[in-house]
Amino acid sequence: MLARRLLSTSQSPSHLVRTFTSSLAHNKAPALSDITPDNAHQFDARQKEFRDSVKAAQKAKEQADSQFVKASSSSTSTSFSSPSSSSTTTEQLGLGSLSTQPTEAAREAEHKKENTKRKGALSNLIYGTEEGRALDQEIEKSFSQVLARGKYVHSIVFHHVKPDKVDEYVDLIGSWYPRMAGMEENHVHLVGSWRTEVGDCDTFVHIWEYQRYHGYHASLHSIASHPDYPAFEKQLKTLITSRSTSLMQEFSFWPTTPPRQLGGLFELRSYTLGPGNLLEWEQHWRRGLKARREVMEGVGAWFVQIGDLNMVHHLWQFADLEERKARREMSWGVEGWGDTVHRTVPLIQTMRSRILVPMPWSPVG
């Protein structure tokens, strides 16, 4: 995420911001036909440049972290130099297991173990074993702490636009979204905006990033309090047939990409999983993504927490449709990918693919 911030700060939002207007459309909606065919070599060059910049930012962060740890270690080492204070220090740090004397925690654990034995098989049958309950707690912990990166909440917004209002919609959103994302007091980042070209056409997809759920609430309140918001909302309602929003979190193994401009097209793959299958999906994809990244460029992966539950979204980027076909076929030659498909397909109830093109103001394009 540091890399995301370092890259985003280098791009001034001023060129994206336009004054809000309710006038008629001035911009043509982007289309798949706008993408130049046989342009994969330029896409690959931009992809390499982007990946190198991310690696450099990550390396700089690791060096800064290492220097901080060294400085902290040298300043605190004197706290442990006195032998006479070692036992006191051990107790303060909660390291009772280093002592030969039984601690209160150890005695409590032994008492709990004896009680478990006394409950017998009937109690285990009714309430589950101690190990089973511990496993249930670990699963819950996995969903909240291991599966997701808890610092960020993302929303995915679908706008279904009237066919004859597409250009007017593009002009309205192109004036409003970059402006709201560029206002620091709104505490929100626009990941990207896209138009669906293959799939449910005239549907626009927007992904936003917030600082946890508190940030989501604060951002909504700030934007809705803007004096131009009522006019924007009123006009938007005349241009769309429906809209939907889901709140998501990104998988811990797949952070959302920082802003970049590689060109080409995007594929949004949406999976509805069977209830209870999300954790297993994460475990298999954690390994499978390593294989896929060797031949494909991922943007992000999220699972829905509020909205369309049991839904997972993966977003990929390709130079063009022919390159997409070639890259997907190459995946089968990478060790581990076949096993990922074999293990994840049974977890899926439905799946959907959309081909998207980025909007002119999209930070990821």
Strand content: 15-25%
The overall pLDDT, averaged over residues, is 77
| Terminal Cα span | 18 Å
Count of beta strands: 8
Radius of gyration: 26 Å
Number of helical regions: 11
Written as H for each helix and E for each strand, in order along the chain, the element string is: HHHHHEHEEHHEEHEEHHE
Ranges where pLDDT stays below 50 over 5 or more residues in a row are: 1-25, 78-107, 113-127
What is the share of helical residues?
A: 40-55%
- Please state the overall shape, judged from the principal axes of the Cα atoms: globular
The biggest beta sheet is recorded as: 8 strands, antiparallel, barrel
**Side-by-side strand order of the widest sheet:** 1-3-2-8-5-7-6-4
Structural category is alpha+beta
Q: What this model shows, in words?
A:
This protein is of the alpha+beta class. 45% of the residues lie in helices and 22% in strands. The chain contains eleven helices and eight strands. It has an eight-stranded antiparallel beta barrel, surrounded by four helices. Helix 1 (2-9) packs across helix 2 and helix 9 (278-292) packs antiparallel against helix 11 (337-344). It is globular and about 55 Å long. It starts with a helix and ends in a 7-residue tail after the last strand.
